[in-house]
Amino acid sequence: MKIAPACVLLLSGCAGAQSALDADGPSALAIENLIFLFLAVCGVAFVLVMGVMTWALVRGRNEPAGRPQTERSMGRVVAGAVVATFLVITFLTAASFYATPSLDRGKADPPTILVRGQQWWWQFSYLDADPAKTFQTANELHIPVGTDVRLRLEASDVIHSFWVPNLTGKQDLVPGRENVLTLNAAKPGVYRGQCAEFCGLQHSHMALLVIAEEPADYARWLDVQRGLATAPTDGEAAAGKLVFMSKPCAACHTIRGTEAVGTTGPDLTHIGSRSTIGAGLLDNTRGSISAWIADPQTLKPGNNMPLVPVTSEELRQLSAYMKGLQ
């Protein structure tokens, strides 16, 4: 009776928002098929090895000791096993190389997004031939359903690795080098990604969300994101804007349409529309924003945001302003 719950627990990892066995894109499907191929081949090899071992033990027990043909027979078995191992490894290696090109499908002019990994967050620059339409966001990547999206992968500090299991395989982001990756989501949904290369103290807190939307919804999202920051609509948020501009915040962050043009931290122009802060660390609520501003090093030790002295009233004002930036 205890086996069934254990099986259910194990199988729960085969689906969900972060599972390589729940493919929703061509690249992920190629990798999923490769996983099942490896599983099948290795399963057959395991059964054969166990069978030969059992046969050898049983036969050795039934034959007289020192019989010459036993040694010769085992020699042939070992030689056959070596040849079979070589063939299996060669086959699996060829299958891996065949699946690898699916990570970059190489379409001529897909939408292009520059992905820059930083300790410990993701910067996404939506590129356009018209510089006025180019904008940045952080930790949430929006893509249209059924369209190849080219990702240009770069790193600002150390090696990171971009991995969204439901949509594609892993690809490294290496300082001084640009790699490419193609995303294509077959259906709308929210897919969780993660840095898959140890990159420092907060590596495990470097998550991202890929939000796949119908083309019309994606176009509307683009229009909103290209716009300037939302002006405060109440006194508390307006006071929060004044606090933001008077503190070091404006020197590190950009809020388009204001005098804040810093480039050290994430672009906050539309931070209120994101579902999380801190690269997936906390839900995006006023309480979380206040806690993050009050003591970022306790929540995410080692991150590059300094402790900015603010009063409790200023915290309330800042959180109102940040949440209003939709």
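Above is the first protein from milestone M3; the second protein from the same milestone is given next.
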Amino acid sequence: MTFPNDENGIVLAEMQDAGIDLSKLLTVEFFQLFEHEKDAKDMAKFISNSDMNATVNVHPDQTPNVWDVDCKVEMIPSYENIVAMEEKFEQLAQKFNGFNDGWGVQQDD
């Protein structure tokens, strides 16, 4: 399988090269950053009360005065699915004065 030559495509190609089966459901975690704890908690509450089926965790970032909202979603990590979900989280984060900070995949051992 080939992917577009952009950040998401490169990550997916590396995952595929590492032997990860991208045709199966995986836990994909999308990261959002906020300057204010209230904004982070407001976004987390919004997602928890939505039909997004995402698990949300709010915690302080390693950077002082920055808050993380990590959103785990079970999904097939196709390029199209990743881009669509990342755009959805970016729009939500902006609504709550934050921004999307990428994504990653958790692997079960």
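Note on the second protein: The first strand starts at residue 26 and ends at 34.
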